[in-house]
Amino acid sequence: MSGPPVVDYRATSLRPGWEALPDALRQALTVALGTEVVEAAPSVTSGFTGGFAAPVRLADGRRVFVKASDSTLHSYGAYQREAEIVPQLPAAAQAPAIITTARTDDWFALVSEWVDARMPGAPWTAADFDVVTARCEAMADALDPNPIAGLDTFLKDLESGESALLVPEQILAGDRPIPRGLQEWVPRILPELAELMHAVPDALSGDAAAHTDLRPDNLLIDTTGICWTVDWNWLALGPRWLDWVGLLPVAQHHGIDTSTAIRSSPLTADVPADELDCFIAVIAAYMLKNADNPPPVGTTRELREHQRFSAWTFLDWLATRRGWTA
Questions:
Q1: Residues 122 and 220 in one domain
Q2: Residue 4 lies in a domain
Q3: Which residue from 21, 253, 268, 269 lies 20 to 30 Å from 240 (Cα-Cα)?
Q4: Would residue 13 count as lying in a domain?
C-alpha cells in the first residue's frame, strides 16, 4: 500500500431510524419535550456507535438533535455520561446544550440543541485548522485546572482492558500480528515505539479536563464560523494540550505545518518534544490493537479503516519528528 486508506467519516455507523424506536420511548420524549416530534430526518451515519442519532422537528417549530440507545449498546452508557457532563462544561467548550432526557426500562434518549454546521478536517484547511485551534486553546484555559469533580485520568482509560501501552511489545514478542496496510518501515521502529510507552504515564500526567476523543467528526463549524464540540462522554484528566495535539497528525497529513503550529501555540510552545511524541505514540499503539478485527455491532468497516488511517498518520507524524524514515 502506497498510503493510508481513504476513510468516509460519513459512513462509519449503522443506526436505526426514528420509526424503529419503541413507542414507549417516543412517548417519553413527547412528555419530556412538552410537544410531539412531527418529522425526523434519517439517522446520521457518522460516529462510532450504533445508537439512534438524528435531527428532528417538533410541533412547536423547534429543531433539536436526538440520540437514543438501548441497553445492549455501548452508546447507552455514553449518552447518559454525556447528559451528566455537558451541563457542567464551561461556555468555552461551545457544546450544544442539553435540552432534556427521557428513558424507559431499557432505553435512554438525550435531546440537545441543533447546530446548523459542517464537519471540518475532510480534508483540513488552514482556515478550519485555525478556527479549531482557537477553540482548543480557549477550552484548555477553561478546563485547566479541572472544574468537574469525579474524573478519572486519560491514562486509566488507555490501560483499561488490554492496555494500549503493551501493544508494541506484544508485536515484538510475536504475541500480536502487525495490522495489514501499514508503512514498510513499521517493524523497524517497533523497539523505539515500545520504549516510548514507558514514558507515557509521566507525559500524560496533568490536572486539566480534556475531551480525549476530539476527532474531526466530533467538531462542527457553523455558518458564522464558530467551532462547536460534541460527544463529551470520554472526559478525563490529562495535560492541557492533549485534545489539540491529537488533531495534529491528520492535519499534517493534509498539508498543515504542524511544526510551526506547535512552536507558536501557547498550548505546546514550552512542552518537551518527547511528551508530545509519547502521546501520539500511545494513540498509534491503541489504533493498532483492533484494526484487523470485525467492526462492533452498529458500526461499519470504516471504523477499522479509521483505526488503520490513524495508525498510519500518527506513525508518519512521529517518523518526521524522530527521523524514522531517514
A1: yes
A2: no
A3: 253
A4: no
Residues 199 and 312 in one domain: yes
- Nearest alpha-carbon partner for 65 in 12, 19, 116, 105: 116
Q: What would the pLDDT profile of 17-62 be if each residue is shown by its tens digit?
A: 999 999 999 999 999 999 999 999 999 999 999 999 999 999 999 9
Residue in the structure block whose three cell numbers are 438524528:
54
- The H or E element that residue 58 is part of is strand 52-58
* pLDDT for the residue numbered 141: 98
| pLDDT 10s digits, 181-200 | 999 999 999 999 999 999 99
Which residues partner with 111 through β-bridges? Answer: 66, 100
CB neighbour list of residue 139: distance below 8 Å, 6 or more residues apart: 90, 92, 93, 211, 229, 243
Residues 64 and 145 in one domain: no
**Tell me, what's the pLDDT at 326?**
56
7 domain-assigned: no
Same domain, 193 and 103: no
Using an 8 Å Cβ cutoff, are 153 and 237 in contact? Answer: yes
- R_g (Cα) of the chain, nearest Å: 20
Burial 288-320 (b: 16+ CB within 10 A, else e): bbebeeebeebbbebbbbbbbbbbbbbbbbbbe
Q: Strands across the sheet with 52-58, in order?
A: 37-40, 52-58, 63-70, 107-113, 98-103
